[in-house]
Structures are given as structure tokens and as C-alpha cells.
Design brief:
By secondary structure, the chain is mainly beta. The protein has 2 domains: 124 residues, Immunoglobulin-like; 78 residues, Immunoglobulin-like, CATH 2.60.40. The chain has 2 helices and 18 strands. The chain is elongated, with a radius of gyration of 19 Å. The relative contact order is 0.21.
Length: 227
């Protein structure tokens, strides 16, 4: 199941490639507000981000800024609106592995949703040499994938434009393989491996427009030599 990965890409595209102008939520039917709740921990920064993005109708719709009287919080702490990216966010030092988002709309409805993060790290002793002529397997430190989960690995060489993304989303999987047919398209250089684990589910409480609850974990980047 790749919904979590594609949802993240969609939000990224909307954020960085298109206008991030938003509409006030008081101007739309409250029951047509789609909410994307994300809890994201980045090992490289040792920071957890609680983020919520509101859209009109579906995740391709207009982004919404909550009007006065509506609010969204995580573990009881209100999120702030980022006008540049048009979402709500709060940062926490260290790993916050789970918590509850609470959204209150203008019709006096309250929606609460639990989110948790599943981890996946590069194991000790992982080879830091990527031979482009051979498969390169990563058996991550962490549990096997469950329904709605996926692991992605990006190999990012010095020539960033040659970066490749690999996806594993099979239930029960414990590893991901970088295949030579795509590795061979990269020039020999140094680079990094970036591994992310996503856990996606439907919200327990939502409007008729629905939404998504996303746990996102980024392992510490691994420096590699590509040869």
C-alpha cells in the first residue's frame, strides 16, 4: 500500500511547486474539510514535527487556514499556522513516538485521532559501498511491515539529479533491495542513503470528506561510496 508515500509526495508537490495560498475555513462547508495528520521524526535533526494540513474536499483541493473559533492541537498543545507552506505545525525536541491530534471545527464538532511512529534504521555494519553492478540489500532495524506501511530508500549522489527512489510495501517485509538496473544509471561518486518509514491509516474520526493519519520516521542518513 503506497497511499502514505503518494500522499506525502502530493503534499510536497502542492507545497513547493504550486501556490500555497489558502482559503479561510469559514468560507467552506465544514463537513467537506479533509484533514491530513502527520507525526514525523527526523533522526538527523532529533526533532519531531506534528503537522496538520486541511484541504477543501480532498488532498488536491484548496488548502485551508482555520478561521477564528476553529483549532487543531497535538497532545494538548495548539499547532501554529505556517503561511509559507499553508499547514499547521509544532516542533518537539527528541522522539515523540505517539500522540493524539484534536481538531475542532466551526460547527462545534471535535475530531480526535491517534497516531504513532514505527521505526526503521540502518543496521550496524551496513555496507557503505554500493556496487552498481549488484543488488544492495538493507535489512532494517525495526519490525516487519504491516498493512498500510511502507519503507522507501533514496540514494542521493553528488549529482542530485541522478537520485533514485526505491519502495518496499509488501506486508511482512523486513528489507528493501536497491536493484542494479537502476543503480547503473548513477555516475560513480559519493552520496547518501535516505530511509523513511511510513504508517498510513484512515482517521478514526473525520468529516465526510475523510482524511489520512500518517506516522513518518526518517533514519539517520548513511554516507556511501557508489562505484
Amino acid at each position: 500500500m503506497l497511499r502514505s508515500f503518494f500522499s506525502l509526495c502530493l503534499v510536497g508537490l502542492v507545497s513547493f511547486l504550486m501556490s500555497c495560498e489558502s482559503e479561510d475555513s469559514e468560507n467552506v462547508n465544514q463537513d467537506r474539510i479533509y484533514a491530513l495528520y502527520e507525526l514525523f521524526y527526523d533522526v538527523n535533526r532529533d526533532v519531531t514535527f506534528a503537522r496538520t494540513t486541511f484541504f477543501f474536499g480532498n488532498p488536491t483541493g484548496t488548502k485551508l487556514e482555520l478561521s477564528e473559533g476553529a483549532s487543531v492541537s497535538f497532545n494538548g498543545q495548539e499547532l501554529s499556522f505556517d503561511r509559507t507552506l499553508a499547514y499547521y505545525v509544532r516542533e518537539f525536541s527528541g522522539l515523540v513516538q505517539s500522540g493524539i491530534f484534536e481538531y475542532n471545527d466551526l460547527d462545534d464538532n471535535t475530531f480526535t485521532n491517534f497516531v504513532s511512529i514505527a521505526t526503521a534504521d540502518f543496521p550496524d555494519g551496513q555496507s557503505t559501498t554500493v556496487d552498481k553492478s549488484q543488488s544492495y540489500e538493507i535489512v532494517w532495524d525495526g519490525t516487519a511491515l504491516a498493512e498500510g506501511e511502507s519503507v522507501t530508500v533514496s540514494i542521493v549522489p553528488n549529482a542530485v539529479s541522478e537520485s533514485k527512489l526505491f519502495i518496499q510495501d509488501n506486508n511482512g517485509a523486513t528489507s528493501i533491495i536497491l536493484t542494479p538496473n537502476r543503480l547503473e544509471e548513477i555516475e560513480s561518486s559519493t552520496g547518501e542513503l535516505v530511509m523513511d518509514r511510513f504508517s498510513s491509516s484512515d482517521p478514526t474520526q473525520a468529516t465526510s470528506a475523510g482524511g489520512e493519519v500518517l506516522g513518518h520516521y526518517r533514519a539517520g542518513n548513511l554516507e556511501v561510496t557508489i562505484q
